[in-house]
Design a protein that fits this description.
Helix content is about 40%, strand content about 15%.
């Protein structure tokens, strides 16, 4: 049966280079909303509170996420927020064995969430293909590393120095500020040799932003997407979700799916989520609604007799 083309009510901003290769896996972001699973090998991560701090639990969680349909595993060893000092050596001890184990057993995309070039370099050598820098490229050496290795670089909007507080952030127009910041940092990265096709962007929900700022970014995500590069919506269980519905961390799952779906309808091509199975279902359904993919089957009311 031939399925007619779908005219989407949510026209997505076009991408300058939608087809991206990450190690052994290629993703066409013109037809795929990728699910990035979160694996934090930290004792104090804001959501899981150390659930995957043990090495075997971190590896098992990453492989389970891949089996559940995650396109991408984001592995971190130091939380974004302020906390006890974690040296580069300790961070590497946390993340490198996870990268090695996952790369040996899966072709899933692996990113390392770090602001340290030495950690990123070792993880790239071990099988990671993405550097997820949540500090807004405050260390240009990360761009130089991406340029020399061919790794993908995630550039995130954030203003504070790594692991420092940024109290009461103020913006005249938060979305325009984020767009201007990202465009400027993209130019910095490209000036250091990173190809545009190696860059992914993240507006940084909740990073140096209050709940009103993060909601504004969500409802105007299309302005982020119009930059033309695949954009991440990292919304899972964040404080803006909890404050919006007055829910504790462990009760934000459904609202997180709603926020991720809203961002995807406005152009996000990657959602960074804790609950992988439900997020995969939500994004496959969102793709069908947007007309990016055909239904897996057509049976309901398709014949002269109802089932």
């Amino acid at each position: 049966m031939t399925i007619p083309p779908v005219a989407s009510g949510f026209p997505l901003p076009p991408l300058t280079s939608p087809v991206r290769t990450f190690g052994a896996r290629t993703i066409d972001f013109s037809s795929r909303i990728a699910v990035m699973a979160i694996v934090n090998r930290t004792p104090d991560s804001f959501f899981d509170r150390g659930r995957t701090f043990a090495l075997d639990r971190a590896v098992d969680a990453a492989l389970a996420a891949a089996s559940a349909g995650a396109d991408w595993i984001d592995i971190g060893g130091v939380k974004f927020a302020p906390g006890p000092e974690v040296s580069a050596a300790e961070e590497l001890d946390r993340v490198l064995p996870v990268v090695q184990a996952v790369a040996a057993r899966s072709d899933v995309v692996i990113s390392v969430d770090t602001f340290r070039p030495e950690v990123a370099e070792a993880c790239i050598a071990a099988g990671a293909s993405v550097v997820n820098d949540t500090t807004g490229l405050q260390n240009p050496q990360l761009a130089e590393l991406a340029a020399s290795t061919g790794a993908t670089l995630v550039i995130t909007h954030s203003l504070a120095r790594p692991r420092t507080a940024y109290a009461a952030p103020r913006y005249d127009d938060v979305v325009q500020s984020v767009v201007d910041f990202l465009r400027e940092r993209i130019e910095v990265a490209m000036g250091l040799g990173v190809a545009e096709s190696q860059i992914i962007i993240d507006p940084g929900h909740d990073l140096n932003k209050n709940t009103l700022h993060s909601l504004e970014i969500t409802r105007r995500f299309d302005e982020i997407a119009r930059i033309g590069l695949p954009a991440i919506a990292a919304v899972s269980n964040k404080d803006f979700v909890g404050e919006s519905i007055e829910a504790p961390r462990e009760e934000r799952g459904d609202a997180s799916l709603a926020a991720a779906t809203a961002c995807a309808l406005f152009g996000a091509r990657i959602v960074r989520m804790h609950d992988v199975p439900r997020s995969v279902q939500a994004m496959r359904m969102t793709e069908a609604i947007l007309g990016l993919r055909e239904p897996r089957q057509l049976r309901h009311n398709m014949t002269d007799e109802n089932d």
